[in-house]
User: What shape does this take?
Amino acid sequence: SHRGARDLKCRAQLHQIVHSMSLYAEAFGGRLPPAGGQGSGESPGAIAESWADVLIETQYILPEFLVSPAAFEQDRSSYLFVPADRLDGEPTRVLLYEVPGMHGKHGVHVAYHDGHIETLPLQEAERLIAALTAAHGPASQPPLHRDDDDRVRPGE
Assistant: This one.
């Protein structure tokens, strides 16, 4: 089915992002890319580079992997990074999750620090995201911009 193919591609892209973050961390002394975004720059209100910008600019991932085939918005990453300094291999610690609702009531894909991916029922995912937001603040969902030839490029 078409929905099954989209679901499989979303999971594969999430795996690719986790792998890219792992390679980045290996090359940068175990550190993950910064979450970035509004208010995380050098001065108040400044916008720091996002985790997605850093992975793209350092050539650890292609921008196309950051937009799910099930995405409503094509100008933002479909995957949200839960801020962390390092990968710790913890199988219960969330690293990334996709924007809830992209697959309707069929669930939300969640990636963990040990690299495994789970699909959680929508209500369970919403509870998990609320707990993550309370503990760590909002996850980072960076904007993506398109070149004149309509290819996705990092945010500015």
